[in-house]
Write a structure and sequence with these properties.
six-stranded mixed beta sheet; alpha+beta; single chain; binds manganese (II) ion; five-stranded mixed beta sheet; 13% helix; 231 residues; globular
C-alpha cells in the first residue's frame, strides 16, 4: 500500500517491565465521576456517567523515570490539572457487564486530563461541545502502564497530585461515583471497545490552575508516578 503522504506514527505508551509498548486506539474520558469534584463544578447527586474523547495524538507520553513537558496551550488563561486513573483496555467488546469487565483490562496508568477551564466553561454556558476545552494538543499526559497482574487492589488505591511539591488533589479510587467495572459497562454499551482504548476515569476534587514553570507529580498507589513540567 502507498500513501499520498506518510501516515501518522502509531501512538504508544510504555508498559512497565517489558520492551513491547501499548498501541493506543481511542481515548475516552468520564466527566464528573467523584462527588466532591462534581460539587466544586456546581453539580450534586449521582447522574448517569457521561463521556467525551480526546484525540489519540493529544497524549504526552512520559517514559518511566522521565519528566514530561507540556507546552502551555494557546487561547486560555486558566489551564487546570485533573489527576486521573487511566484504564488500558486489552480486549475489546460491546455490552460488557461490570462482572466481566476485568477480563478486558490490560492494565492501569496515571494520567492528567488537562483542561482549558475558561474555554470549557464558555462552551458549557452555550451548550456547545467541550472539544476546545478538553481535546487540545498535549492535553493528555500519561505515564507507563502497569499490567493488571502486577497491581494491588486498584479500586482502593490512593490518588494524589502535587504541584511544585504542594498537595493539590488527594482522594481514593474507592470514591469514584461509577467505578472502573461500571464505567466499562456503560461505555461499552455506547461504543464497541477495542484493544488499545484508554479510559480516563475522572478526577477528584481540588482542580486548580497551573502556569508555565510548574512541575506536576501525579500518583496512584501501586502505579508509576507521572511527572510533567509546564513549559
Ligand atoms: Mn477529567
Amino acid at each position: 500500500m502507498s500513501f499520498v503522504f506518510p501516515p501518522s506514527p502509531v501512538v504508544s505508551v510504555p508498559v512497565l517491565g517489558q520492551p513491547e509498548r501499548f498501541p493506543v486506539h481511542r481515548i475516552y474520558c468520564v466527566g464528573r465521576n467523584y462527588e466532591e469534584h462534581a460539587k466544586e463544578m456546581g453539580f450534586t447527586g449521582r447522574e448517569p456517567p457521561f463521556f467525551f474523547l480526546k484525540p489519540t495524538d493529544s497524549l504526552v507520553v512520559v517514559e518511566a523515570g522521565q519528566t514530561g513537558t507540556m507546552p502551555y496551550p494557546s487561547l486560555t488563561q486558566n489551564l487546570h490539572h485533573e489527576i486521573e486513573l487511566v484504564v488500558a483496555i486489552g480486549k475489546g467488546g460491546r455490552n460488557i457487564s461490570a462482572a466481566d469487565s476485568i477480563q478486558h483490562i490490560y492494565g492501569y496508568a496515571v494520567g492528567l486530563d488537562m483542561t482549558r477551564r475558561d474555554l470549557q466553561n464558555e462552551m458549557k454556558k452555550q451548550g456547545r461541545p467541550w472539544c476546545i476545552g478538553k481535546a487540545f494538543d498535549h492535553s493528555g499526559p500519561i505515564g507507563p502502564i502497569t499490567p493488571i497482574g502486577q497491581t494491588n487492589d486498584i479500586n482502593n488505591a490512593e490518588i494524589s497530585l502535587q504541584v511544585n511539591g504542594a498537595d493539590r488533589q488527594r482522594s481514593t479510587i474507592s470514591k469514584l461515583i461509577w467505578n472502573v467495572a461500571e464505567t466499562i459497562e456503560h461505555l461499552s454499551a455506547a461504543w464497541e471497545l477495542q484493544a488499545g482504548d484508554l479510559i480516563y476515569t475522572g478526577t477528584p476534587e481540588g482542580v486548580a490552575a497551573v502556569v508555565k514553570g510548574d512541575v506536576l507529580v501525579g500518583s496512584v498507589a501501586g502505579l508509576t508516578p507521572l511527572k510533567v513540567s509546564i513549559v
